[in-house]
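ok here's GtrA family protein:
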Amino acid sequence: MKELLLKQKQVVFFIIAGGLSAVMEIGSFKIFSIYIPLIFADEYNYHGIYFPLSNIFSTACGIITNYFLSIWFVFVRGKHSKKREFAYFMGVSFLSTILSLTFFQIFFSFIFIDHLDLGFFVVSQEMLSKISAILLVSVLNYTVKKNFIFNG
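and the structure:
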């Protein structure tokens, strides 16, 4: 098992960095989804889009966290300059954000119709949707970042 982890060190570090970024994104989403509706009442449902600002702001927090963790711990600098690498990272992150927001809306509207009661903890419909969207998009993110951005 130890040999497998050493061979797949980059994947393990990506999972750890992604997990920390997801914690940042989910935590900030929870905070934003509580406080933004106090200022902007339509945040719950803005023309059929649920929690748009909370999603955008929390995703930005997750992206920034992930960028720094990726360049510090996961990937070796590739063949691109720092500026170009950052621009590619942000471009991929922008597309990932669109995908994540789309998946969130699908999960929130059609899949997670109610909260999940675990007995000792209740997971809300919006949190289930956010977590699921993050997990789905993270597979795409790793593949694109490894093969196109940080491909030394």
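+1. Helices lie at 2-7, 9-39, 52-74, 82-111, 125-149.
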